From TrEMBL:
Name the UniProt record assigns to this protein: Membrane protein insertase YidC
Location relative to the cell: Cell inner membrane; Cell membrane
Statement: the UniProt record of this protein carries the keyword Transmembrane: yes
Keywords assigned by UniProt, alphabetized: Cell membrane, Chaperone, Membrane, Protein transport, Transmembrane, Transmembrane helix, Transport
CDD domains from the UniProt entry: 5TM_YidC_Alb3, EcYidC-like_peri
Pfam families, per the entry: 60KD_IMP, YidC_periplas
């Protein structure tokens, strides 16, 4: 987990606990993507290239496959509603993939891979040495075509060896979606190809598709599924990393911030897998180079069991979760820790998708989402407010106790707990909304940076809610803050400070331990610290917190009008009488508190007695040995 995320989560928890426990409130039109893709310039076909190899050299390098070492590369373009895939007869590989519904951060056509950025190869173990199929020229009868939804197209590339011997790679593209079936078969090659493993190597240079190169480098990873669990390399790392995987790998993906390329096995898994994450911080074109290689069972390729899938598309949870051949493929979208994931998976993500049907503006959508969450939380907030109001009613009695005990903070704490016990008030009841709110805020802290739905969605001055808004650029960089000012983060911080001031104004003075900082000042300090963390986080997340703070203040003001102080005071007096007379049983909390206080008093008494005995013995020894 990244340092900023750890600090951010810690600040969220500290802020919530500080607000509620230390200072409790007693008052309480887009362009058409398909049209853009249609008008996008098609890449020029590869110019015919002739292998400059004489027959002797070709025979030495490629052995029985030397006849395919020379040829002319030809492109086959197949497109559906979502992608335009360019195949090449050289290597029989996917040469280029255009995502038709997405643009780069500079609003250029988004080519997820191309001939310069991606190299995919299969290395066959022949009797005369290893042969790299990506360097050979295949034949095909396929033609470029556009396919409609509900239909599919097959593109087969064959490397004929004569006598019904050949290598064949077949791609099946559906009429929509980003998944391509990929089948490899070795026919009649038992005498030419050994049953040693075929090596697969995919080197993928991930392009800068978003505006912040430094932040993008932190989230680029290779995810892989092995031994029943998902792991990754490269996350948050700015240096070269290499990892060897001992267990077979079912699938791996090269993950940019919002997009994926992936290799998925449908039968035999990859073995002897080596993953590399390579970083060149001086490179302004590519974020990282992710290289994945592993071994395929050649015997399976000969037996017609070389069935795989390739994925080229958005890291959209609604899309990746539907890849059935890859277990937990939906986890390419980071939904947070296991304890938080269900909240994002079953509430926030579906809620986003539901609200998208009614709101095209994502700023409005976020406001509606906040209102829904706050509405769900209203009963807990109301109960918390009533509990806090009860504690406020006890402020005069606490003031009298404070005058009696003076500066003895421990004694003050004991007397305060006794008073709560006498009137049936549990100070912990005010923590319920805090405990319920913390998972929500922490879940969103993970979700918003990974939510592709916010990508390039504009609201007010923010052109893209998936990244920070930066209408103000600084001529210098502030440590831990950056060289820009996020207005949404600034507004969020102001709303937190207003909320802290509001709470502090109406909260009775708390008992302060000697040498401890003023907790009221801490509630002002935390939002400022949080501002530094959030300045480079998505504008959508800062906007959510801003709206949440404003709605919380309004919610408390509304609840305040439904709570009658006189009735609460009467309830406290009634509880006092019933508890004193034994008519009303003490709460479990009161029983635990009473036992704890008695145990503390007994421990203190024993400690004092032990201290007196020690002092007496010391005096006796002093008299004997003056």
């Amino acid at each position: 987990m990244e340092r900023n995320q750890i600090i951010g989560l810690a600040l969220i928890m500290t802020m919530l606990i500080g607000y509620q426990l230390l200072a409790p409130s007693p008052e309480p039109t887009k362009p058409n993507p398909a049209e853009q893709a249609k008008n996008a310039p098609r890449p020029a076909a590869t110019a015919p290239a002739q292998k400059k190899l004489d027959s002797i050299t070709a025979q030495a390098v490629y052995g029985d496959f030397a006849s395919a070492a020379q040829g002319t590369a030809r492109d086959i373009v197949v497109e559906n509603d979502d992608v335009r895939v360019t195949f090449s007869t050289k290597g029989g590989n996917v040469k280029e993939v255009l995502l038709k519904k997405y643009k780069t951060y500079t609003l250029q056509p988004l080519y997820l891979i191309d001939e310069q950025s991606s190299t995919f190869s299969l290395e066959l173990p022949t009797n005369k040495g290893t042969v790299n199929l990506s360097e050979l020229y295949f034949t095909t009868d396929a033609q470029s075509q556009t396919i409609s939804a509900g239909k599919s197209a097959k593109v087969s590339f064959r490397l004929p060896m004569g006598n019904n011997q050949y290598v064949e790679q077949t791609y099946t593209v559906q009429g929509n979606g980003y998944l391509i079936d990929y089948d490899v078969q070795l026919v009649g090659l038992d005498g030419l190809v050994k049953n040693e493993p075929t090596r697969l190597v995919w080197q993928d240079k991930l392009k800068q598709l978003e505006n912040d190169m430094a932040e993008n480098r932190k989230v680029v990873t290779t995810n892989y599924y092995s031994d029943g669990s998902l792991s990754n390399i490269g996350a948050g790392q700015s240096e070269n990393v290499e990892e060897k995987i001992e267990q077979p790998v079912s699938w791996f993906s090269h993950k940019n911030k919002y997009f994926l390329t992936a290799f998925i096995t449908k039968g035999t898994a990859l073995s002897n897998v080596t993953l590399k994450s390579l970083v060149d911080i001086t490179d302004t074109t590519y974020i990282k180079t992710m290289q994945s290689e592993g071994s395929l069972a050649t015997a399976d390729l000969k037996a017609g069991k070389g069935n795989f899938q390739l994925f080229f598309g958005p890291n959209d949870y609604q899309v990746v979760k539907e890849v059935k051949a890859a277990p937990d493929f939906g986890d390419n979208v980071d939904l947070g820790y296991a304890i938080l994931k269900p909240l994002n998976k079953f509430f926030f993500v579906p809620m986003f998708n539901f609200l998208e049907k009614f709101f095209s503006n994502y700023g409005i959508l976020i406001i509606v989402l906040v209102l829904i969450v706050k509405l769900v939380m209203t009963p807990l907030v109301y109960k918390s407010y009533v509990s806090m109001a009860k504690m406020r009613m006890l402020a005069p009695e606490l003031a009298v106790i404070r005058e009696k005990v003076g500066d003895d903070a421990a004694k003050m704490q004991q007397e305060q707990m006794k008073l709560y016990q006498q009137v049936g008030v549990s100070p912990l009841s005010g923590c319920i909304p805090v405990l319920a709110t913390m998972p929500i805020l922490m879940s969103l802290f993970f979700l918003f940076p990974n939510l592709i739905e916010l990508r390039q969605e504009a609201f007010l001055w923010a052109s893209d809610l998936s990244t920070y808004d930066a209408p103000i650029k600084l001529p210098f960089s502030i440590p831990f803050y950056g060289a820009h000012v996020s207005i949404f983060t600034l507004a969020m911080t102001i709303s937190q400070l207003v909320y802290a001031w509001y709470n502090n104004q109406i909260t009775p003075t708390q008992v302060q331990q000697p040498g401890m900082p003023d907790m009221r000042m801490l509630t002002y300090f935390m939002p400022v610290m949080f501002m530094f963390i959030m300045n480079s986080f998505p504008a959508g997340l800062s906007f959510y917190y801003l709206v949440s703070n404003v709605v919380t203040i309004l919610q408390q003001q509304i609840i305040r009008r439904f709570v009658n102080d006189d009735k609460i005071r009467a309830i406290l007096e009634e509880n006092r009488k019933k508890i004193a007379s034994g008519v009303k049983k003490k709460s479990k909390f009161s029983d635990i508190l009473e036992r704890s206080m008695k145990a503390a008093e007994e421990a203190k008494k024993q400690a004092d007695d032990a201290k007196k005995q020690t002092e007496a013995k010391r005096q006796q020894l002093k008299k004997k040995n003056p």
